Hints:
single chain, alpha+beta, Alpha-Beta Plaits, DNA polymerase, domain 1, Dna Ligase, domain 1, five-stranded mixed beta sheet, 39% helix, 22% strand
Amino acid sequence: MGRWILHVDMDAFYAAVEQLDRPELRGKPVIVAGLGPRGVVATASYEARAFGVRSAMPTAQARRLCPQGIFLPPRFDRYEEMAEKVRAILRSFSPLVEPISLDEAFVDLTGTELLHGPPERVAQEVHRRIPEETGLSCSVGLGPNKLVAKLASDSAKPGGLRIVRPEEVLDFLAPLPVEELWGVGPRTAARLHEKGIHTVAELRAVDLQLLQSWFGPKGGEFLWRWCRGLDDDPVVPVRPAKSLSHETTYPEDLFDPERIKAELRRLGLLVVDRLRAEGLLAQTVQIKVRFSDFTTVTRQTRLPEPTDHPCLLAGEAVGLLSRVAFPEGQGVRLLGVGVANLVPARFRALPLFAEERLGQVIGEVRQKHGPQALGFPCPG
C-alpha cells in the first residue's frame, strides 16, 4: 500500500476572511497588515498582489505600491475560528492532520481507502467541501510524501488541485527552480547558481559525493534526496513546543537603558504566562535585540534547573542585556525574549534565589486580572 499525503493551503487566507465577512471588499486590493509606522504585511489579496504587494513586506512599502489598497489590522481570533472549520473537515478524512500554520496543513491519507475511497477522490472531495462549507478558496496537492504534496499545492495556486502520482514525481520536479525545494534558501540557491545549477533536473545530475563536498554530509544528502522527491518526514498531529517567545517592534527607537530593561521584564513575564498556560518549564532564556540599522544580536543562558518562576526568567532576560554591545548612536528597534529546553511542569525544583510563593502569587494575579495587572514586583 503506497503512502499518500495531502497538503491544503488556504489562498490569501487572512485577506479572504476579511472579504468573506465584508462582501463589499470582494474584488478589491485588501491588505492585512500592522498599521503602525513599522508594520509589516501579513497577507495580501490577489488583487493587491497584482501591484507587487507581498507577505512580510513593510506596510509603508505596500502603501507606496498600492495606494488604493484597503489596509486592515489582523483579527487572529476570527482567523483561528475559520482555520478550525477547515481542520474539522480534514479530520473527517484522517486523524493524522498536521497544521503548519493557520492557513495550511498536511493530512496523511495512507490506509484510509476502505473508509473514504481512493486518495485522489478524497483530494477532490476536500477541494470541493472547503469552499462550500467555509466560503474560502483553497489549493490542494496530493503526493506520495509531504515534499511533493506541498509543491503540488503550490503549483495549483490559486484555487486549484494537483495530484502527483509516484511514477510522475521525477517529471513533476524536473523543471522546478531549485529554490522551490525545502532547505534551499537564498545562500544555497546562490551557490548552486554559481555552479550552473538552476533547476531540479540539473541538481539531480550532480553526484552525491560532490554535493556533500559543497554543502557538508547532511546538507548534500538532503539535496540529493529532495531533488529525487524522497521525503520520509511523517505527518505529526501535535508537535511538542521546542521554544516560546514574545517580541515587539517599537514605533520609535528606544535609547533609555531603564526603558529597555523594563520592556525585557514585560516580555519575560508574557513568556512566563504562556509557559504556565501550556504546563511547561524552561531551562534556557534567550533575548533578541535589533538596532536601528537592523543589526540583530541574540544572547542566551542556561539555568541550573527548568523553571517557570517569573522573577528568575524575566530577571535572567535583563541580565543578558549586559552581554550586548550597543553601537554608538543606535537605538533599539525590536526586543524579544524567548525560552527553550522545555519540559512538562510535573515537578518544580525550589529556586535558591527567588521566593517560590511570590512567583505563584504573580502568576495567579496575572491569570485572574490580565498581564497589565501586575508588572515586575520582584526584589532587586
